[in-house]
User: Fold these one by one.
Assistant:
Number 1:
Amino acid sequence: MDELQERVLAELRRYGANRLKDVARGAETRELAGLLTEKYGYGLAKALAIARELAGEPVPDLAREIESVVLEVDPDAVEHRRNRWDAMPAGLSLPRRDR
C-alpha cells in the first residue's frame, strides 16, 4: 500500500507539472491551475483512503503534500482560495471568442 501512496503522489506531481505547462503556454491562469490541482489531489487522496480502509490499513493525511504541489502551481493559492470562498457562489468568468 505504501507503493500505491507513492504512485498517487507521483501522479499528483505529474498533474501539477502539466498544469504549469498550460500556464506557461497561456491556456490557464495560475489561479485556475492551482484550483484544478487541488481538486485533483483531494480526489486522489480520497481514492487512496478508500483503498487503505478496505485493506484495514491506516488512512494517510496527504493534505500537506497536496498543498505543497498546489503552491508550486499557484504561489498565491491561499489568497485565491479565500477569494473564492468570499465570492460565493464561485463561478467562472470566461471571455467569449468571436468565431
Number 2:
Amino acid sequence: MGTKPIPIAAAKRIAKEYGYDQVVIVARKVDPDGNEHVTTFGVDSAHCQVAARIGTALKHHLMGWPSELFQTDLLVHGVGRDAFSDQTINLYCDGAVSDEQLRAVHNFLKPRI
C-alpha cells in the first residue's frame, strides 16, 4: 500500500482528544519507494505558527530536507490543475514568485536519483 499525506484534520483530532495546543506528526515510509511527511496543527494562529516552525526544524535539521526550502517567505495558498494539460499543476502564491523561489520549488519537487 502506498503512502498518502496525513491531513491536518487528523492532527486536529489528536489535539482535541488529548488536550494539546500544538501537534506535530512526523511519518516515514522506510523502503526503496518510501517518503517522509510532516503535518502540523495549532489551536489558533500563534500556536499554528509555532507548530509550523517545529515542523520546519524537524524537516531541515533532523530529516535533512534541502535548506533552500526554508529560506523563502513564499506562501502557497493553493494548488490547482491546468485546464489544458493533465501534466501541469498551478501553485497559487501570496505574491510574485522570484526566480530563486521557483528554483527552490523545482529542487524540492524534482526526482531524487
Number 3:
Amino acid sequence: MGQSPSGGARRSHPEPSADDAGALFGLEDLRTGPAPAGTARPGPPIGPSFRDSPTARRLLSVREIHAEPAAAASPRGRQILARFPAARIIEVDSHWRIPALHGNEGNAERWVRIKSEVLVLGEKKTLATRPNGRSADWIAPGPANGCAMACAYCYVPRRKGYANPITVFTNIEQIIAHLGRHVARQGPKREPNQCDPGAWVYDIGENNDCSVDALISENTADLVRAFARWPTAKASFATKFVNPDLLLLDPRGRTRVRFSVMPPDDSRLLDIRTSPVEQRIAAAADFLEAGYEVHFNLSPVVIRPGWQEDWAQLLQLMDDVLPRAVKDQAAAEVIMLTHNRALHDLNLTWHPRAEDMLWRPGLQQAKVSENGSRNVRYRNHAKAEAVAAVRRLVTTYAPWLRIRYAF
C-alpha cells in the first residue's frame, strides 16, 4: 500500500445505456433485494465462503454505507448493497470528501470501530498506471482505498483525516479495461529486473489489502482472473490477512501474493486486527499450491531493543515451517519503518502504546515523500546499519530467501 495514484490520466466513462437505467433512481430505491439477474458475476462455485464465516463477520460488520449514487447503482455496487442488507445507506457527493467521516476529529477515538462498521462506495475517477521499479514495475489504479485492519504505522490514513474505512471502487470493469490496454502497450518484457525476470508486475493493492477486499466484493477475484489471461504481466499485492476464499480462484501463476511478516510480539502490538504472523507463514504453501506466486515482505522493520534477536527467531520459524517448494520460488522485500507526525498524533488517541515503539525522535529524521507528505524515517546511518543487519540475518537463518530490494 502507498500514496494514491496520480498523474496524467485518460478518463474512460462510457455513455449511459439502457442497462444503466438504475442510475436514474435515488439510493432509497436500490434496497429492493438481491442484485438483478445478469448484473453479477458468479463467485466460486464451491460451498460456503470464508467471507460468510464468524471470523470474517467480526472483521467486517457493516452497518453504514456512504455511497456515491452512481457507485451504488452500478452492478458492483448493487452486489455490495445486497451483501449488507441491514446497513444504512447515506448518499455522498464524493467518496474522498465526507466531512462527517473524514473531517470529524471525534472519529479518531472510534478508529477501529469505524473500520468494522462503515463502508464507502465510490467510482475511481482517475485511471492512471504509474511506474514504480521497486516492488513492482507499475502501480495500478487500485480497486479500493483504506482497510478494515488497523496497523498503527499504515500511511494510507495520513491523507484522509480522522477515519479510514474501506472505500470500494465499483467501476472495476473500467479499471480492468485500462490495465488491459496498458499491458498490451508494453508488449513482452525485454530485460529482467528486480521486479520479475520475465513479466511486467503491477501492484494492485498499493492503498488497500486485496485479501480483505475479497470479503466485500468480487473486485479482487476479477483482477486475479484478468491477469490470468495476460501472459506478459503479473498482479501483485501485499497482505496481512489470510483469506481462504482466494484459494478457490485460478491465478495460473500470474498473481504474486506478498505475505507481510514481522516478529509476532511486534505484530500483536502494531498489526491490529490482522491474521497472526504464524498463520500468514503457514498459508504460503496453500497459496503456492493454488497457483499463486508467494513472496514475503519483511515489513516494517522497527528498531527497538532486542529487534535483531526477534527477527532471527522469525526467520528460523520460516525456515522450519515452509516447504522446499515455497523456498525455491520465494523472494522478499525489506522495508524499514517510515512514520508521520499527523499519524503519531492520531494514534495517541486510540493506541498510544504503539507510539512508544514507533515514535523515536532521537533515532529519526524528516523525510519528504514522493507525494509531498512530511514523514520521518530512521536516520541515514541507523537505517543503513539496520538494513545490513537484516541482510546478515537472512543469510544466516533463511539463506534460501532472496532479497529483491531493501529500503
Number 4:
Amino acid sequence: MMIATDSRGHAVKGPSEQVIGTMLADLDQGDHLILERQDESREGDWYIQVLSGGDDTYQLEYRDGVPAEHYQTQAESQEQVLQGLLGWVAGKPDWRDGFAWTSIGHWFTPAPEKEGDPTA
C-alpha cells in the first residue's frame, strides 16, 4: 500500500497522481512530503521524501529497504521533483535519471567497532 504523508500529518492512502501533485504544490519552505510503500512481505523501509527549501529548491531522498541504500539529491524544479515522485510510485526503472544522487547511507549505518577502541 502506498501512503502519502505531509508535514502536518495529513495522510492519504493510495494517493492518485493528482493528490501527490497537490500535496507537493502545497509545501511551504521547510515542509516535507513522504511517499511510503508499506508491504508486510518486504522487510525494511521503502520511501521517497521531499523537503521544500522555498524558492523552487527541493531536497529529494529515497531509501530502498536498508539504511545503506539511502540517497539524496537537490532539485530546482517542482515539475522535475513531481516526475521523480510519480516515477518512483509507478516503479519505473528510469525514475532516478536526471538527478545527481549521493549515497547518504553511512549517516544511518553504525560504524564498525574497532578492536581495542576504549570508546566502543
